[in-house]
Design goal:
alpha/beta; globular; single chain; 5 strands
Length: 125
């Protein structure tokens, strides 16, 4: 697992820090991005085994990131897990996001450490 790289994307640094600590405790290698544009820049220059992507971000939302990735398959990672606490996204909306943009899983915030690791392990073990 130590060679599995995860990009954690959320506009709130405390969340990226918390998620990174959880994942590093399970020996995953993590890189963070605190904006949609920073996420795209990192995906252009680095390879990741999994991307954890927040949907509700200012300036460039997770939906916009997914849309860009859908149009640019050369930078698109195979494993994208979306996560959000935003009440504007209903369960039906989240299902559509998964279908339309190719995200493979979704996790609703708040999530437990066990819930997060179960989803990550599902795709990286």
């Amino acid at each position: 697992m130590a060679n599995k790289r995860i990009l954690v994307v959320d506009d709130q640094k405390d969340i990226t820090d918390m998620v990174t600590e959880i994942l590093k405790s399970s020996t995953y290698s993590c890189v963070t991005a605190n904006s949609g544009q920073e996420c795209l820049d990192k995906l252009k220059n680095e390879k990741f085994d999994l991307v954890l992507l927040d949907l509700a971000m200012p300036e460039m939302s997770g939906l916009e990131v997914l849309s860009f990735l859908g149009e640019n398959p050369e930078t698109r990672p195979h494993n994208i897990v979306i996560f959000t606490a935003s009440p504007e996204y209903t369960e039906k909306d989240l299902k559509k996001v998964t279908e339309w943009y190719g995200a493979i899983e979704r996790v609703l915030k708040p999530f437990t450490e066990d819930q997060l690791l179960a989803v990550v392990d599902k795709y990286l073990k």
